[in-house]
Amino acid sequence: MIFVNSNARLEFAMFKPVIITIAALAATQSFVMAADIGSEAPAWRYLQGVDGKLHNLSDYDKDEIVVVAFLCNKCPCVKGYEARFNRFTEEFGKQGVRFVGINSSIGELENLNTMKQRMSDGKLKFDYLRDETQKVARGFSATSTPHVFILNKQRRIVYSGAFDDNRSESAVTKNYVVDSVNAMLNGKPVPVEKTQQFGCTITYR
Predict the structure, then answer these.
(1) What is the number of other CB atoms lying within 10 angstroms of the CB of residue 38?
(2) Contact status, residue 157 vs residue 151, Cβ threshold 8 Å
């Protein structure tokens, strides 16, 4: 027979709500462990691209900087940023910077066929990959579309957050990603490591 003293019972009772809360969070679809600034980026492998090829993070080893943006097909916020993403790709692609879009969302329009359609329409000028298992999104702790991460040459996360500070391009006053990439290309640290991302919430299975 095992005896538990009253103090032990009291301590357990005090921590029980905390234990239950953590368990409840872990059971929810949106609970994702945070990816810290400075941590190694999840080295994704074999993500299907709209180009019909399987893509790995190592495919971009020659690039100095990789910008990863979690996107989806339905979100109006993402659509509002597509022109900015395309311009970024064209401007910085010549300087050893790769922009990669990853779709980890679930929904009627979140599938490879719809992704291919968006690419064939000429709306996207960058690699667009499907994260069907959502493992990559979880590894990055992506929470919304778009949610942008910047990876340095060592493929460590040096920035996480929004692309800029306003959904409306005409109202943008701070270009977080552009400023960060320019700083890195000039051998300087990113001016801001984290900002608050916004857009459509990524729902996890």
Answers:
(1) 10
(2) yes
Mean pLDDT on 170-176: 98
Q: Quick one: which H or E segment has residue 34?
A: none
d(C-alpha 16, C-alpha 131), whole Å: 36
Quick: pLDDT tens for 90-128.
999 999 999 999 999 999 999 999 999 988 877 899 999
- Domain with 54, as residue range(s), is 32-201
Q: For residue 42, give the DSSP letter.
A: P
List the CATH number of the domain containing 43.
3.40.30.10
List the Cα angle 180/45/109 in 5-degree steps: 80
Angle between helices 176-185 and 76-92 (to 10 degrees): 20
* C-alpha–C-alpha distance, residues 63 and 45, integer Å: 17
